[in-house]
Amino acid sequence: MSSSVTCHTADVAKRMLSYNWRYFRWQLILIIISLMAMASMAVTPLLIKHLVDEVLVAKKYQYFAIFSLLILLAVTAERIFSFLLNKYYMLTVNRVIKDLQISAYSHIQKLPVEFFVKTPTGTLISRICSDIVVMAPLVGTSIAFLASNVLELIALTFVLTYLNVELSLIALSFLPLYYVIFKKYNRKLQEDAAEERKTYSKVVEGLKEKLEGIVTVKNLNLLERFKNLFAKDVDRWVKSRQAMYVDSYLLRNVNLYIVAVVSTIVLVYGGFKVLTGTLTLGTLIGFFTYFRWLYEPIRQLVDWNNEFQRGKSAALRVFEVLDAKEETEGCYELGKLREISYVNVDFAYNGKLILKKLNLTIKAGERVAIVGASGAGKTTMISLLPRFYDPLKGEVRVNGRSLKEYKLASLRRSVVIV
């Protein structure tokens, strides 16, 4: 990946994260609920340790019911808070999707006609209906997600260290390996995600165009040819999607494998310490019960990174539409129409000059017939009046004032094209 592309995607990432501040109040709710779930989860291994060491081993069975109830309450609270967390997460994501889609559509409505001529409708549909859905969780919940997982990792490290320093060091010693694997696959995932979004958009765009022209296709007996063209687009998308998910799942499974290896080492070494009397059975059970959660926020962060790479590709495509310049307009209202003038107007379409040094004045009440061969510029002349296009050179005036000085709504109310 070139340095310019890397810089460009870095700018997109910053822009995505800047969107998060618009939904900070919603994300604050997510962080608070996450902290409550974290607190409920943190007390569980401590209660298990005391249940085993101070109740079961010490044979103080009168406290058995109390500790069992406390563990049950902690587990129940953690599940309730987890449910609320998922619920408000989806509420936030859906709110972001709604806001972005409405905002994007509103912006698209204000783009010049030339933009729609150059941009396939299928492309715009893909941006609004697909790409926004992919990027929404990342532009609306990243702050809460990152903060919650980092805080959870810190809390887990503190609790595990409190239970046993040696076992904690064993568990934490494998974290650098996570980072190395993550860094190695990060760039590959970016490239895979960009290709998947590109090929998917091609499928959507091609499908729309082929369905719109289905009558012509049938008339020309080209059904088989267009089916094969569509199949090629789908095949390219499926292959790019497969490559992206294979790399993603490979990374995730390597991480899960590391967790399994560390779990085995912790259990074997902890069991040895219990046998030698240097570690209590309650501490080992509590540590082992809780230890596997240490890698959960890391797994979540790895998964988030995978989605972030895919989301960056989608966001880049959405931002290309949102950054397109809207139509400009003046501040004057168009009153009674007295005169229309074309003054030294040049207009080119796809580099081909259609109108050259056009000069024409039409007074109110006059009837004018514009006659010419196909492609001579008749429709273009009329399309310049409501400012669907602007001249390459020269200007069109109404009542002696340039069209650019009038409000678009006022101007277009006065022009009817049948």
Structural description of this entry:
With 418 residues, the chain is α+β, with helices and mostly antiparallel strands. Helices cover 72% and strands 7% of the residues. The protein contains 14 helices and four strands. The protein has helices at residues 3-19, 24-56, 64-109, 113-118, 121-140, 142-163, 165-172, 175-212, 214-219, 223-275, 281-291, 295-322, 378-384, 408-413; strands at 339-349, 352-363, 393-398, 401-402. Strands 2-1-3-4 form a four-stranded antiparallel beta sheet, with helices on one face. The longest helix is centred in the middle third of the chain and has 53 residues, at 223-275.
Helix content percent band: over 70%
Uncertain parts: 1-7
| N-end to C-end Cα span | 51 Å
The whole-angstrom Rg is: 32 Å
Keyphrases for this structure?
alpha+beta; 14 helices; 418 residues; disordered N terminus
Task: Outline the fold blueprint.
Blueprint: H1 3-19, H2 24-56, H3 64-109, H4 113-118, H5 121-140, H6 142-163, H7 165-172, H8 175-212, H9 214-219, H10 223-275, H11 281-291, H12 295-322, E1 339-349, E2 352-363, H13 378-384, E3 393-398, E4 401-402, H14 408-413
Antiparallel strand pairs: 1-2, 1-3, 3-4
